[in-house]
């Protein structure tokens, strides 16, 4: 894992996570069957709302690493919420794979020419996101520390 952390540094991981999240937020409004964007469907706003927690967590990790701070209860709570959101990310992989595999069901209908390309792109991005998220958790543990609040006051270094 150390060789991976030399190649994919914490900054690269956070920037890649932000890029993937931004792409998925835009693509959450895209309909692969119709090749159009739908901004009036309430379902399309679920992923952007959930990714706001992910963006917040990435900001906190970036801040804690650059400022060399210890983890705190607020950061832990955001991470625990992100664990639940990770389940949604895994479901989105399944959902996107089902859409991708549905081309055989709808082959007699008019399907856009870029259906496979866009469905593949969305599937790859959804597949990368949980990996980057889990790697961010590992980097948090490595660079910021574990959540140990029983002796939190003993670990504070006010002269740092």
Give the tags.
single chain, 160 residues, mainly alpha, 68% helix, elongated
Largest sheet, order of strands side by side? Answer: 1-2
Strand content: under 5%
**Overall form:** elongated
The average pLDDT score comes to 90
Please give the alpha-carbon distance between the first and last residues: 29 Å
Low-pLDDT residue intervals, each spanning 5 or more residues: none
The tally of strands reads 2
Could you outline the blueprint of secondary structure elements for this entry?
Blueprint: H1 2-7, H2 10-27, E1 30-31, E2 36-37, H3 46-67, H4 73-101, H5 115-144, H6 152-155
Antiparallel strand pairs: 1-2
Helix pairs in contact: 2-3, 2-5, 3-4, 3-5, 4-5
Give a structural overview:
By secondary structure, the chain is mainly alpha-helical. The chain is 68% helix and 2% strand. It is built from 6 helices and 2 strands. The chain has a two-stranded antiparallel ribbon with strand order 1-2. Helix 3 packs parallel to helix 5 and helix 4 packs antiparallel against helix 5. It is elongated, with a radius of gyration of 19 Å. It starts with a helix and ends in a 5-residue tail after the last helix. The model has no long low-confidence stretch (mean pLDDT 90).
